[in-house]
């Protein structure tokens, strides 16, 4: 026969009820779900930042290459030199189009309000200089790329390689365009840079 002490110990043996097990499992599953959700949110944000930066890198490379392609072909308009504006935030020049019959374009790029913008007009005549432009350049601007943080992306050199801001002396231009993802995405900025030598820098 069991003693009274042993019987008391047996009566005090405790376990978990079904409800306690269910509550515990619910808390555990909820904690795991919250942790997984936080991890997925962080991963999605990081992926979004990486994709945005990759897109901006592609866009800024394309934009600078477009400037280089236009500027490398710069031509005189009769006695007017190829480059007509050589400012830190804007460059304006004459460049041929790629159409037949041949036209001359006046092209301008500028940085304004965090955007790289482009404006151009095409000559109304095709029979050579002096080329006649139809209106005022800059009446409309098209956005080439957003998120630009460099306010002064253009620098210039003369034929001797010395820095210049005189449009009539420009023989080459350096473009250094910096872009950064929107504030909400975070991420580092990226800069794409190139130097363009004009094929024609005088009208002689």
Structure description:
Helix content is 31%, strand content 26%. It has two helices and eight strands. The strands form two sheets. A five-stranded antiparallel beta sheet has the order 1-2-3-4-5. Strands 6-7-8 form a three-stranded antiparallel beta sheet, with helices on one face. Strand 2 and strand 3 form a beta hairpin. The longest helix is centred in the first third of the chain and has 55 residues.
Q: Would you spell out the secondary-structure blueprint of this structure?
A:
Layout: H1 4-11, H2 18-72, E1 83-87, E2 90-96, E3 104-112, E4 115-122, E5 142-145, E6 154-157, E7 172-179, E8 190-197
Antiparallel strand pairs: 1-2, 2-3, 3-4, 4-5, 6-7, 7-8
Structural class: alpha+beta
SSE pattern: HHEEEEEEEE
Which sheet architecture does the biggest sheet show? 5 strands, antiparallel
Count every beta strand, where a strand is a DSSP E run of 2 or more residues: 8
Computed over alpha carbons, the radius of gyration is 33 Å
Shape: rod-shaped
Strand proportion: 25-35%
The count of helical stretches stands at 2
Helix content: 25-40%
Indicate the low-confidence ranges by residue numbers.
none
Please state the average pLDDT score: 85
Compute the separation of the termini in Å. 125 Å
Q: How are the strands ordered across the major sheet?
A: 1-2-3-4-5
Count of domains: 1
């Amino acid at each position: 026969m069991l003693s009274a002490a042993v019987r008391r110990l047996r009566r005090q043996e405790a376990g978990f009820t079904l409800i306690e097990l269910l509550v515990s499992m619910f808390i555990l599953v909820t904690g795991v779900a919250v942790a997984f959700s936080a991890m997925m949110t962080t991963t999605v944000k990081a992926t979004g930042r990486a994709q945005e930066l990759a897109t901006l890198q592609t866009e800024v490379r394309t934009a600078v290459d477009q400037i280089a392609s236009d500027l490398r072909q710069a031509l005189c308009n009769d006695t007017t030199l190829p480059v007509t504006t050589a400012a830190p935030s804007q460059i304006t020049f004459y460049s041929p189009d790629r159409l037949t019959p041949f036209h001359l374009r006046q092209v301008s790029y500028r940085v304004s309000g965090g955007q790289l913008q482009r404006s151009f007009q095409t000559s109304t005549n095709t029979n050579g200089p002096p080329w006649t432009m139809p209106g005022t350049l800059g009446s409309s601007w098209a956005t080439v790329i957003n998120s630009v943080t460099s306010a002064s992306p253009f620098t210039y050199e003369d034929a001797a390689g010395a820095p210049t801001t005189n449009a009539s002396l420009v023989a080459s231009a350096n473009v250094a365009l910096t872009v950064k993802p929107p504030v909400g995405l975070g991420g580092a900025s990226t800069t794409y840079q190139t130097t363009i030598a004009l094929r024609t820098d005088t009208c002689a």
